[in-house]
Amino acid sequence: MTRASITKISAIEILDSRGNPTVRVFIELSDGTETSASVPSGASTGENEAVELRDGDPCRYAGKGVLKAVSNVNDIIGPSLKGVDVSKQAFIDRQMIELDGTDNKSKLGANAILGVSMAVARAAAQSFNLPLYQYLGGAGARRIPVPCMNIVNGGQHADNSVDFQEFMAVPVGAPTFQEGLRYVAETFHVLKGILNKRGLSTGVGDEGGFAPNFSSNEDAIETIVQAIEKAGYKAGEQIAIALDSAATSFVSNSDSEYDLAYSGAGKLNSDELITLAGKWIENYPIILWEDPLAENDWQGFKQFTRQHGDKIEVVGDDIFVTNTKYIARGIQEQTANSALIKLNQIGTVTETIEAVRMCRDSGWRYFLSHRSGETEDSFLADFAVAMDGGHLKTGSASRSERMAKYNRLLEIENELGQDAQYYW
Question: Cβ–Cβ contacts within 10 Å for residue 274, how many?
Answer without folding.
Answer: 20
